[in-house]
Amino acid sequence: MNGHLDSAKRRPISVIGGVDLFPSPEEKEDTDPLPSPAARPPVPSHGVPPYRGVSARLRPCTFSQSTPTGLDRVGRCKLTRVLSDGNSDGCAGLDDSVSEEDGSFDEITEGKPYLQPEVDLSTLSQYILSGHAVYAEALWDHVTMGEQELAFKAGDVIRVLEAQEKDWWWGAVGERQAWFPSSFVRVRVNQEDSGSESVESVEGVDQEETLSKDPRSQNSEQREQMRANVVQEIMNTERVYIKHLRDICEGYIRQCRKHPGMFTDAQLGTIFSNIEEIYKFQRKFLKDLEKKYDKENPHLSEIGFCFLQQDEGFSIYSEYCNTHPAACVELQRLMKQGRYKHFFEACRLLQQMIDISIAGFLLTPVQKICKYPLQLGELLKYTPKDHSDYEGVCAAHEAMKNVASLINERKRRLESIDAIAHWQVAILQWEGEDVLSQSSELIHSGELTRVVRAGKTQQRSAFLFDHQLVFCKKDVLRRDLLHYRGRLPMDGAETLDLPDGRHPEMGTVRNALALRHADTLELLCVLACRKVQDKQRWLQAFARERLRVKEDQEMGMEISEAQRKQAIQNARKSKQGKMKNISYPGHPSPLHHQPLHPLHQRHVTVPTSIPQQQVFSLAEPKRKPSHLWYTFTRSALFRK
């Protein structure tokens, strides 16, 4: 710090940056050294964010319906400038007309580690090279099949070890080091705390004890400064978010409505959904935040109650997130035509918007709603229990976690219905309604023996979805082909664990369980497993199915009818494309869910994207070689 400080207690300033320009020797010694460098694989060559390896190969559409794109160019927060006297110019330069990407540090301080989320690469790299530990929190799940990539879940804490690349950073989770997409994380504001603690890990822990782990944080003034930093970040990012929403409404929607020959009302509804309602809501929410924001003493701001007052208002994000995958698909279709591509670019330039595609702008609401719990979690960490805003922040954090959790689950469920649709169209002789009419997730699958009565059994491949259990039979010649053989509704059914032994109607059974109607106690079916371990897995799976249905009802998890139908249509189009490649004169492509000609059956396989799909083999059935012709040709008669 400067040498001429007043003896009076200095008020915390609302600066997201270093305030101690000349740190003490003790602080320099306390910096966390970087781990020793190890041999690193090359930067992944695929795009950012990386699509899931299996899904990308199996889907007919190259664009993932649920994986967010453009995160690396969205939400770059302007950094408040730090003056040489330790004061700040505050947020005067950060209004609605200022781009998030225009800001940067005027000077890099070596003091207490305060960083603005998604700081520019040069500043972040210098910060890391100076010996400071930089931690980031995951916004999204990163599921990867590659060894050179780092897998993590939303909320995990990643230590950033190198940030020289724009799209890919080198980091560590625990002992594992690998590349990860920079767009999937949010850099923490306060970097001096242990990076191993996620937001959830500090919940229920006394804040006083948490902060006292670091000797430097025992100063109450510094604690207040930490809270001021987080409050300032929330306010700044909220203002910039409002600008993005305004640009979308005025720069894109208004111009699109002026060209009815290019866009129908249905198209605009698909692409932009209810983003105008979100813009209206967020403007009101920002006004509430401004009223509770204390510019003179940011650490005293009581913004937690603002989130609680608007708790129901955030529900409008559910509709937007539901329709966002359809918007991405429609945009991708339009962008294949040059006039639409040029039109959207002209709209961006006319509105003087930053260099982000329209798809990136339309992603900002999804990203924002997932950032709230991370910001509130960090705010809770630096809010003492005796603070007037403590209860409000606690409740707000929990509420926003539920909202973000619902969105993440819906994204995952969209991936699931896509895989289920591809699975269903490969089933032969399908009857009745589609699986997706009731279900959206596969819970478990495996081989079972259905006991019809004493002495009569049926070998079945069973697939347990939410709300229903589907039975299939393996093809006699091709064991990797499945024929539909019926289903059982799980709503109103209960599971019974049958003891081994003889039963009056079913005879002797082993490793068996039964399904019966919960009200009438009518026996629906008896299922036997090969091993006792398999039986336990099925019993647990049936319990999970009922729990999943209950959770979906409580969370309001809903997949729209349009999304279900779209998934089936995409899967059928994909199958038609494959059948065209193998059509021959006199052998027309069969209709869906009809028995296939043997020639066509050789080219039909069940997608491997269904989890736990270990009930069939994709290999050709092995046949013993025939020695009959060989015997004839070796005989004396043929040798003559």
TrEMBL record:
Q: Which species does the entry assign this protein to? A: Electrophorus electricus
Location within or outside the cell: Cytoplasm
Task: Please indicate which superkingdom the organism of origin belongs to.
Answer: Eukaryota
MF annotations from Gene Ontology? guanyl-nucleotide exchange factor activity
InterPro entries for this protein: DBL_dom_sf, DH_dom, PH-like_dom_sf, PH_domain, SH3-like_dom_sf, SH3_domain, SOS1_NGEF_PH
Q: Which PROSITE patterns match?
A: DH_2, PH_DOMAIN, SH3
Q: Which GO terms describe its cellular component?
A: cytoplasm
Residue spans of biased composition, Basic and acidic residues class: 210-225
Region of interest (Disordered), residue spans: 1-51, 196-225
Query: What keywords does the record list, in alphabetical order?
Result: Cytoplasm, Guanine-nucleotide releasing factor, SH3 domain
Q: Which residues form the DH domain?
A: 226-410
Q: Which SUPFAM superfamilies match?
A: DBL homology domain (DH-domain), PH domain-like, SH3-domain
Q: What is its main location?
A: cytoplasm
Question: Which residue stretches does the UniProt record annotate as biased composition, category Pro residues?
Answer: 34-44
Q: CDD domains attached here?
A: PH_Collybistin_ASEF, RhoGEF
- Protein name (record): Spermatogenesis associated 13
SMART domains reported in the protein's UniProt record: PH, RhoGEF, SH3
Q: Domain SH3 spans what residues?
A: 131-190
Specify the PH domain's residue ranges.
Answer: 441-547
